[in-house]
Design brief:
By secondary structure, the chain is an alpha+beta fold. Helix content is about 25%, strand content about 40%. It folds into five domains: about 5-65 and about 170-195; about 70-165, SH3 type barrels, CATH 2.30.30.520; about 200-230 and about 290-430, no CATH class; about 435-535, no CATH class; about 545-650.
Amino acid sequence: MSQLPVRQIVLYKHGVGFFTREGKFTGNSLDLTFKHGDVNDILKSLVVVDRTGGQIRGIHYQTPLNAAERLANTSIQLRDDNSLPDLIRDLRGRQVTMRLGGEKRSAEMATGRIIGMTDDDQPDARSVAILATNNSVRILPLDGIKEIKINDALAEQDLSYFLDSIMSEEQRRTITLRMNDSDHDLLIHYVAPSPTWRVSYRVVAEPDDSGMAGKALLQGWGLFDNHIGEDLENIAVTLVAGQPISFMYDLFASRIPQRPMIEDESRVTPGPIEYEQSFASGAVMDAMYAEELDAAPYAEPSPKLRSQASMARLSARPSAESVKKTTNAAAEGKDSGETFQYIVNEPVTVKRGESALVPILSNDIKYERELLYNAQKLPNHPVAALKLTNNTGLTLERGPVTIIEDGDYKGEAIVPFTRSHESIYLPYAVELGIHIREDLRYQRTLAGLAFKGEYAVFDEYETETTAYHIDNKTSRNAIITLEAHKRSDWEVIGTNKPTDETVNTNRWQTKAPSQSQALFTREERRRISRSEHLKSISHKQIQEFLADKYLDEEAFRQLSTLLEAYDYIEQVHKANARLIEERQSLYKEQEQLRQNMGSLGTAGREGELRSRILDQLAASQDRITTIGQTLDENDSKINKAQVRIKQLIAQLPQPSST
C-alpha cells in the first residue's frame, strides 16, 4: 500500500476518478500499489510533483509477462503444495547451512552442498543428503531441518526473483518512484477506474390554494463508493456532471512486434507495424439523458378514505422548511464549461468497501402541476407531472427523484440532465380517471408536377391528422398537455399550433371539462416526391392536371399528343404481335402440307391433290411475304413515333435544378 494517503478525489459519470495523494517522504524510492486493472490508466496519467524541489528520476514497474516467460531463466521452480522439497531439489549442488532442531545457540548446524533428497512415499521419512565441508556425506531428516541459509548468491537471487514473480500474479501491482535521496513533499495525481457516482433527489412540495402550483424544496444527494482498497480519511470530494472523453489504452502489456526473417542473400523491406487502439467516445448528451417515465399508479381517494388516513397520520409530517433546516447542502457548484462540478465543502471519511451519500443541493423552487400525454411513453392515460425550472444555478445530473407533496408520498420520477434555467417535467403518477384514444388518418394531395425524361415527377403533400378523443371521468376540469415527437421532414399545419417546443418535441395544451368528452386534432404534413412513367398516365389524369392548373394549355396539348403517340405505338405493337402470331401459324401449316405432299404421287387423283397443295403453299407464302412487309412498315412507323415522342418530351416542363 502507498505510504502517501489519498487527500482528494474527483469522480466522473463515465467510470473514472481523478485521485490526489499527498504527503512527506524521506528516501529515494517510493512504492505505489494499485489494482491490476488500474495500471493502464495509471501509466497514462500519473503526474508527480515534489514541492521541495526534488527530482523524480524514473517510474518503474515489473514487465507484465506470463508466469512461464518470467520464470524461464530462473533455477528455482516451486510448486504450491510441495515448496520445501522443490526448494531442496533446485538447490542441488549449492552451498547451504542448515540448523537442525533446538534453539539457535544450542542447535546443531550442518554446512555443505546439497546432494539431493530421498524419494519416500511417507513425507515424515524423507531425508536430505549433503556433502559436508570435510567431504563426508551426511543424511539429515527433512522434518528436523528448522532453518536453511543459502550460501550461493545466484541461488539466493533466483529465489527472490521467483517469489517476486509469484507475488506479481496477484491482483495488485506495484509502481515504484525513483528520486534523489533526500526529504520530499510529494503531490501525486492520476486517473483510475472508479464506479460512477450517482445522484438521488427529493422534492418536498407545498401547493398553493389552487392546488395546481406551489413552492418546493429540491434536495440532491451525491452517492459514491470507496473501492480503492484503503480507508479514506478526511478527503476532499468533487462530483462532476458531464461527459469528458476517456478511453482505455494498453500501456502495461509488453509487446514485441513480429519482424520479417531476412536471409543472407536477399534484401527484404520490413512491413509496417501497427498497434491496435480503441476509442470510447461519449454519447450525444440529449440521447444519453433522454427523459424516462417510471410512474406509479395513482387514483383519487374517496372522502371516507381521506378521513381515515388523516386520523392515522403522525403529527410531524415532512415539510420543506423542516427538511431544509435538518440537512444543509455541503457543496458548491462550479461551471467548468463542458462539465459542472459539485465541490463538497466538508471533509469526507469513507471506510474501505463502504459507500456514502453527501448532500450537494438544497434549493427553493417554484413548480406547476400539469397532465402530460405522450402515447409513445404511456398510452391511454396522461401522467401527473410537476413542471419546474432549474433556477438553482447548478447543473442537475440525471437521477431518480422521490416526490413528497403536502406531507404525503406522491410518486417517483427521473430528473434528466438539466442545465441551469432549463425546464424539467417530473411525471410521477398516472391519471387513470382520464382516458385518451388516438385516431390517425393519412391523405395525399398533389403539390406540383414536372417532367424528367419519360417520367412524370409528382410533388405531393402527405398529411397526417391525429384526433385525440379525451374522456375525463374525474370531478375536476383538466388542462392536458399533449406531446408529440418532432420529425425533421414534417411541419405542423392547421389552426392548432404548438404552445411549447423543445429540441425533440412539440406540445399542445387543450381543455378537458369534468365528466365530459373533448376532441383535439393536430395536423402535420411532409412533401414527398415520386416518379411515374408517362405511358401509365391516362388522358383523364392530364385533364385533371389542366383543371387544377398544374399544366398550362401548351403543356396539355404536348402531353396529349405524347400520350396519343404512346397509344399509337402500343396499337402498332399489338398489330405486330398479331401478325407475328399469324406468320408462325402459316409456317406450321406449310410444314404440315409439305409432309402430306411427300407421300403423294404425280399421276391421277394423287397428282390432282398434290397440285392443290402446291397452290395452298404458294398462297401461304404470299401471305408470309405480305406480313413481313407490313412488319417492316410498322417498325418504321414506330421509329418515327419514337422520334416524335423524344421531341415532345424535350418540350415538356422540366423540374428545377434546385
